[in-house]
Amino acid sequence: MDIDHASYQEALNSFKLSKIKIMKTLKIFLSTIIVAFLFSNVTAQSASIKTTTIKVNGECNMCKKRIEKAALAVDGIQAAVWDVDTKMLTIKYDESNPAMEENVQKNIAAIGHDTEKYMAPDSAYNNLPGCCHYQRKSVKQ
């Protein structure tokens, strides 16, 4: 089988051109993906993060774990830290949801810990371990 040199060169050039087109298309595609990814990160970071503190009654590190877990269970809470000494819970969240603080306080009261605005149901408070019982006061509602 004889393949003439001109046909071989033509086929080789055609292959090289196809490869160049594929590489250019791949570069454009990857560049588009990278730009889209970067843009989405910039947009996500532009949301305003709010940090606030809430008074939450409790006594010990068991309370700390329970309170922080209840706060983090609220969709949209990015961080929650309760200080055993000051009884203050610091939360971080996207401020576009104005009911966030309210939802956190309701969730924490539901597990037995009184907050600034919500008193825990007696049944939830009574189910706390003995070391977690604190002196209860009435709260504003």
Write the layout of secondary structure elements.
Blueprint (H helix, E strand, L loop, with lengths): L4 H41 L3 E7 L5 H12 L4 E7 L4 E7 L5 H11 L11 H5 L15
Antiparallel strand pairs: 1-3, 2-3
Key terms for this structure?
rod-shaped; three-stranded antiparallel beta sheet; single chain; alpha+beta; 141 residues; 2 domains; Alpha-Beta Plaits; 4 helices
Describe the structure in your own words:
The chain is an alpha+beta fold and 141 residues long. The chain folds into two domains: 1-46; 49-132, 2-Layer Sandwich (Alpha-Beta Plaits), CATH 3.30.70. It is built from four helices and three strands. The chain has a three-stranded antiparallel beta sheet with strand order 1-3-2, with helices on one face. The protein is rod-shaped. The model has no long low-confidence stretch (mean pLDDT 86).
